[in-house]
Design brief:
The chain has 243 residues and is an alpha/beta fold. It is built from eleven helices and five strands.
């Protein structure tokens, strides 16, 4: 289902970006254009996700081809709700998670080049079912500049899946060490009770998976979280070595 909606996101992004009058009535498109002009380059995608959320009951009953036709006809959309939802999505999504190499406002993402996003291979993007997050966003969301950084004040749940030895040598404040080998069974179901408890307790937080140079292990862990219906999952771009 996640792969299915990924392709819908791609299709819808190309569809929403050039919004045309054949799809939305004139009185509605004015509202969207105002938001598109004021928002960043990723805002069209947020609008697309907001529309998908509204159409979710219909989409779940249809196959892929029917979904594409559904967007061509586009049933009645609550445009005010769409705008509210898209603004909320835009405001709560870490900036680096919507990073695109050739985005027109890419300079807005660059605060500290060493901790920022940079281009990565398309093959990596195809294997990952969640976005990447930059070290800069983690510093900001986890308030690492403060001496009292803790999980209680953090906006992210940092899951460090390196070995316990690596974790003991150096780790981010408020991060939690989770054993990769003991987290899932051979059918990718969560069997680590502590991990399940953390996910249940912090559903609204952004979950950041922190790995090392073994990028495949990090990708597998995030993909398994998504398979277990975990939301707001992302992985640390380039791993712990970025710090």
């Amino acid at each position: 289902m996640n792969v299915f909606f990924f392709f819908l996101y791609v299709e819808l992004f190309n569809y929403i970006a050039p919004l045309n009058l054949d799809v939305f009535p004139l009185n509605k498109i004015f509202h969207l254009w105002d938001m598109l002009l004021l928002g960043g380059s990723s805002f069209p995608l947020c609008i697309g996700v907001a529309i998908l959320t509204q159409l979710k009951p219909l989409l779940l009953k249809a196959d892929f081809n029917e979904c594409i036709l559904l967007f061509s006809e586009l049933p009645e959309i609550d445009i005010e709700r769409c705008i509210r939802d898209s603004i909320d999505i835009f405001a709560t999504t870490p900036r680096s998670c919507t990073y695109r190499e050739h985005a027109s406002d890419i300079t807005n993402y660059q605060i500290n080049n060493d901790l920022d996003m940079d281009p990565f291979p398309l093959s990596d993007l195809k294997s990952e079912r969640c976005p990447r997050i930059s070290a800069n966003d983690i510093v900001e969301l986890n308030d690492l500049k403060a001496s009292t950084a803790s999980l209680k004040t953090s906006k992210v749940l940092l899951l460090d899946i390196r070995s316990s030895d690596e974790y003991m040598k150096a780790a981010l404040p408020s991060s939690i060490n989770i054993s990769y080998e003991r987290a899932f069974d051979n059918q990718d179901r969560i069997i680590d009770n502590r991990l399940q408890h953390l996910l249940d307790q912090h559903r609204t937080l952004v979950k950041v998976v922190i790995g090392n140079k073994n990028h495949k292990q990090t990708v597998d862990f995030t993909n398994n979280l998504i398979t277990n219906n975990c939301t707001r999952v992302c992985l640390l771009h380039t791993g712990i070595d970025v710090f």
